[in-house]
Design brief:
single chain, binds copper (II) ion, Urease, subunit C, domain 1, nine-stranded mixed sheet, binds zinc ion, alpha/beta, TIM Barrel, six-stranded parallel sheet, globular
Amino acid sequence: MAFRCDLIIRDATIIDGTGAPRFQGDVAVNGDRIIAMGDLGSAAGQEEVIATGLALAPGFIDAHTHDDRAVLCGPACQHCKVSQGVTTVVVGNCGVSLAPLRMTKRPPPPLDLLGDESWFTLGSFAEYAEALEKRPTNVNTLAFCGHMSLRVEAMEGDVYRAANDREIAAMQARLSEALAQGAAGFTTGLYYAPNAQATTDEVIAVGEALRAHGGIYMTHMRDEADNVLDSIRETLRIGRETGTAERPVEVIISHHKCSMPENFGRSRETLALIDSLGQDQPVAFDVYPYPAGSTVMMPERLRQDVPVQITWSVPHPEVAGRDLDDVAREWGMTRKATAEKLLPAGAIYFQMDEADVRRIMAHPRSMIGSDGIPHDAVPHPRLWGTFPRVLGHYVREVKLFSLETAIHKMTGRTAAVFGLQQRGTIRPGNYADLVLFDPATVADRATYKTPTLTSLGIHRVWNNGEATLNAEGLTGAAPGRFLRNPRLAA
Ligand code: ZN
Ligand code: CU
């Protein structure tokens, strides 16, 4: 087949994202699409890349991010993700979304993970989509609408309580509007005040907007520790009751984990429950490849058996990156008093069991999501290291699963769960979101002490056919798109 096109990547080991075994071949790209693959010996590319010895995969989809604001500030802000091979990010997680919410004072934690009030200026989802289209970045964005953002807007005065009927109706209307304007679904962070004060019935009532418009329910569950099984049941009930008898709303459990030492090993129970309930309704989960979590500093939830590292502090920026106990010792204060003095602040909590992390990651329903927090001073290393860590540490060193399976959990499976059309697999007709990497050297370098080191072994990244990363680093191109709610009912 003789033809000319923009780009041909030759002699790559193609891992197509479906989970199928790798094969050797060429891939041709024209404009924003893959147009051919196989042996393309007689075709000619404007640019040709010889990929002998390297693997070519669909660009990685980060299933769980807090990049709502990072995607608005241009390509440099997504260096942490593109340097890992990421081409699409899912934003608006854990009930926290930048839109639709305008603030005149500092938003309550954990909404302030996204920044102070100066960042909350978007009164509708349409404005968010417009901002992204006006100033595009180097990743595609799939955006969810967060319950906490809706609550702060709808519940004037005290948000630390259950919402009343009028407030619920207002939230439901705002969610409907957001879905119609391109939001991919609804998220909650029921673990956190002021979302924790919402009853299951409130969540269902607000989430009813999903029935008419189509969309996913995604949640940082109420409890990931002792009552994790109840939380899974609550999540699946919300999926059933916001959908119809024939079609429950698809649910995604965010960063699935079993928290706290007394719950170590319980992923056997949680995964069994998810599988049994999942026979009758669609359910998936994302997971990050580390046994520590990260969120805002919560002094009332500290435990002596869970080590804590500070990620940021407004009054004491100088202690970011340090162990809370060391700072407490230095200040001659209790741990709790120290944590209180740091507020508002963020932290890493070493609260999981490595065996659970592996069991959850290896489960067929899992997708890889970083849960990286991009504006922290000394962030959790998952922000810069998640995807190469799975490919290097868990595939090559630990041999937890095959490279094909790992790629599937970062691409084809993720696209299928979120309903993304023509992304997530390498096949003619699909968008040319691609990553070229070396399976023998790919590795994360980010650690808890050095969390912003770029990974090794990621050679090139293309997004919608345009190179976003090459040997010199970011290209500066900004071909990323806002991906409108793929489930929007017609
Ligand atoms: Zn979360
Ligand atoms: Cu999160």
